[in-house]
TrEMBL record:
Catalyzed reactions per annotation: alpha-D-glucose 1,6-bisphosphate + L-seryl-[protein] = O-phospho-L-seryl-[protein] + alpha-D-glucose 6-phosphate; alpha-D-glucose 1-phosphate = alpha-D-glucose 6-phosphate; O-phospho-L-seryl-[protein] + alpha-D-glucose 1-phosphate = alpha-D-glucose 1,6-bisphosphate + L-seryl-[protein]
Required cofactor(s): Mg(2+)
Name of the protein this chain belongs to: phosphoglucomutase (alpha-D-glucose-1,6-bisphosphate-dependent)
UniProt function note: Catalyzes the reversible isomerization of alpha-D-glucose 1-phosphate to alpha-D-glucose 6-phosphate. The mechanism proceeds via the intermediate compound alpha-D-glucose 1,6-bisphosphate. This enzyme participates in both the breakdown and synthesis of glucose.
Domain Alpha-D-phosphohexomutase alpha/beta/alpha: 17-164, 200-309, 318-418
InterPro entries to which the protein is assigned, alphabetical: A-D-PHexomutase_a/b/a-I (IPR005844), A-D-PHexomutase_a/b/a-I/II/III (IPR016055), A-D-PHexomutase_a/b/a-II (IPR005845), A-D-PHexomutase_a/b/a-III (IPR005846), A-D-PHexomutase_C_sf (IPR036900), A-D-PHexomutase_CS (IPR016066), Alpha-D-phosphohexomutase_SF (IPR005841), PGM (IPR045244)
Name of a matching Pfam family: PGM_PMM_II
PANTHER family (alphabetical): PHOSPHOGLUCOMUTASE, PHOSPHOHEXOMUTASE FAMILY MEMBER
E.C. numbers: 5.4.2.2
Family membership noted in the UniProt record: Belongs to the phosphohexose mutase family.
Keyword vocabulary terms for this entry: Carbohydrate metabolism, Glucose metabolism, Isomerase, Magnesium, Metal-binding, Phosphoprotein
């Protein structure tokens, strides 16, 4: 058996190793600096403390982006040196973020071991490649992201670190072949277990959904299906689940081979970046598709986000979570006993609120960041949740889950069509959404992203918006001068959240202007980019009148968009005349 020694390597702190809502994300050129990754990993081990590290079983995998292979070997050697007992690695180092959460929660090793945490190597929906982004985050024993108490401690440790531990003499592990490799170190045995990436996740999905009814839908000549993984890690799971288990044609999978640079694309499942799927589904402005599939979906780089499309029809993420919640009890076996509650992030539209009110469900509005949902789920208070940023999920794991959301939609379609696959018209994605609007009203909704703007300008814009809030009368005067016929603002604040589970308070979570008719303007600085600042502007208008729910979204929102841009002085502070992305 190969033995290794523990070496202590002297180091000095790097500035800016502060994890955001989803870990630490920087350009690859930053991560490949000598000691940079090692400092962050050691700071994490130190923050967790010996009781969570010695003898632990850790998952180390990610979305396969550039630098992942090197990072897996470095983290494995550091885990061995810090007294970790086992490292579990998905085959080829590939595990979607939701699959990591499932593995932490569900997998039992051959020796009866259970995972106690995970290092996930991803920068989510950000581009990959030598000149693009890399990221790392730590998830806890519940399968969810580390809470602020831990991430703050990690950051503090990065500012004072003097040394890190690494195993000398431990060879690189072959991650392409499944099996267990055993080594001997100063503290005893150390195992590396390379395992099948999809088995545990698939088993969990089969316990949630009625696979035979989805298979029946997918095999119907009336129904056609398309799934685009944007060359992210979801492609690994998609082939196994949609083709091998559910019988979809392999030709229905697009860009499902993971690539280190995501094929040169931007692995963000929205109408701007999922160009091939958007064209195939008949939604391209430049390309006309004569016969689009009935259902289409896309994933991001690490497989936790999703976009759902019908034939020539876009489902907003805010509507998607509301529709899943409204139909879950009937269509998804896992929820047949009822929902414990539902939750959305603050910027997400209030479509879910209306469903919760109708169905008399507990409802929570939380800051952006999946950990807030995780707390509610761990306390048994929430079953289904979602974010407008194409993230949807449930209490089966503690991360958002892109493939789960697709299976949820397929389940709803299978349920609505259970009696008419033989004869009669197919109930389509568009039919389901329009019926939902007729029942609950429609939330016209759009998001403008201004990416990589000057950070000082972004901060000044937010300060200007906070200052305006001191006089609602003044705000309404300004608004009437811009567009006279919009509703008036009745409340304006900076969103603050007191967690009902642990009592923690999260401040400065976004600037809100709430209108009398239920419309909202929300402004947020996002923490998921790797450089510059991203301003996100969310615009929402609620419409209950059935004769007015069929309008074009951008047309319906045009007056509020004008109000938002002029009220915030967007161009003046950012120098931008248009957003980078509109969703």
């Amino acid at each position: 058996m190969v033995t290794f020694k523990v070496t202590r390597v002297e180091t000095t702190p790097f500035e800016g190793q502060k994890p955001g809502t989803s870990g630490l994300r920087k350009k690859v050129k930053v991560f490949i600096q000598p000691h940079y990754l090692q400092n962050f990993v050691q700071a994490t081990f130190n923050a967790l403390g010996a009781n969570r590290v010695k003898g632990a079983t850790l998952v180390v995998s990610g979305d396969g982006r550039y630098y992942s292979k090197d990072a897996i070997q470095i983290i494995t050697k550091m885990a061995a040196a810090n007294g970790v007992r086992r490292v579990w690695i998905g085959q080829n180092g590939l595990l979607a973020t939701p699959a990591v959460s499932a593995v932490v929660r569900e997998r039992v090793g051959a020796d009866g071991s259970k995972a106690t945490g995970a290092f996930i190597l991803t920068a989510s929906h950000n581009p990959g490649g030598p000149h693009e982004d890399f990221g790392i985050k730590y998830n806890m024993e519940n399968g969810g992201p580390a809470p602020e108490g831990i991430t703050n401690k990690i950051y503090e440790n990065t500012t004072t670190i003097k040394e890190y531990l690494i195993a000398e003499g431990l060879p690189d592990v072959d991650v392409s072949t499944t099996g267990v490799s055993s080594f001997e170190g100063p503290e005893g045995k150390f195992d590396v277990d390379v395992f099948d990436s999809t088995s545990d996740y698939l088993k969990l999905m089969k316990s949630i959904f009625d696979f035979p009814s989805i298979k029946k839908l997918l095999s119907s000549p009336k129904f056609s299906f398309c799934y685009d993984a944007l060359h992210g890690v979801a492609g690994v799971h998609a082939k196994r689940i949609f083709v091998e288990e559910l019988g979809a044609n392999e030709s229905s999978l697009v860009n499902c081979v993971p690539k280190e640079d995501f094929g040169g694309g931007h692995p963000d499942p929205n109408l701007t970046y999922a160009k091939e799927l958007v064209a195939r589904m008949g939604l391209s402005k430049t390309h006309s598709e004569p016969n689009p599939p009935e259902f289409g979906a896309a994933a991001d780089g690490d497989g936790d986000r999703n976009m759902v499309l019908g034939k020539r029809f876009f489902v907003t993420p805010s509507d998607s979570v509301a529709i899943i919640a409204a139909n879950a009890v009937q269509a998804i076996p896992y929820f047949s006993g009822g929902l414990k509650g539902v939750a959305r992030s603050m910027p997400t539209s209030a479509a879910l609120d209306v469903v919760a009110k109708h169905l008399n469900l507990k409802f929570f509005e939380v800051p952006t960041g999946w950990k807030f949902f995780g707390n509610l789920m761990d306390a048994g208070m929430c079953s289904i949740c979602g974010e407008e940023s194409f993230g949807t999920g449930s209490d089966h794991i503690r991360e958002k889950d892109g493939i789960w959301a697709v299976l949820a939609w397929l389940s709803i379609l299978a349920y609505k069509n259970k009696d008419n696959l033989g004869g009669g018209n197919l109930v389509t994605v568009e039919d389901i959404v329009r019926q939902h609007w007729a029942t609950y009203g429609r939330h016209y909704y759009t998001r403008y992203d201004y990416e990589n703007v000057n950070a000082d300008g972004a901060k000044e814009l937010m300060a200007h918006l906070v200052k305006l809030q001191s006089s609602i009368d003044e705000v309404n005067k300004i608004i009437k001068g811009i567009v006279p016929n919009v509703s008036h603002v009745v409340h304006a604040d900076e969103f603050e959240y007191k967690d009902p589970v642990d009592g923690s308070v999260s401040k400065h979570q976004g600037i809100r202007y709430l209108f009398e008719d239920g419309s909202r303007l929300v402004f947020r600085l996002s923490g998921t980019g790797s450089e510059g600042a991203t301003i996100r502007l969310y615009i929402e208008q609620y419409e209950k009148d059935p004769s007015k729910i069929g309008r074009d979204s951008q047309e319906a929102l045009a007056p509020l968009v004008e109000v938002a841009l002029k009220l915030s002085k967007m161009q003046e502070y950012t120098g931008r005349s248009a957003p980078t992305v509109i969703t």
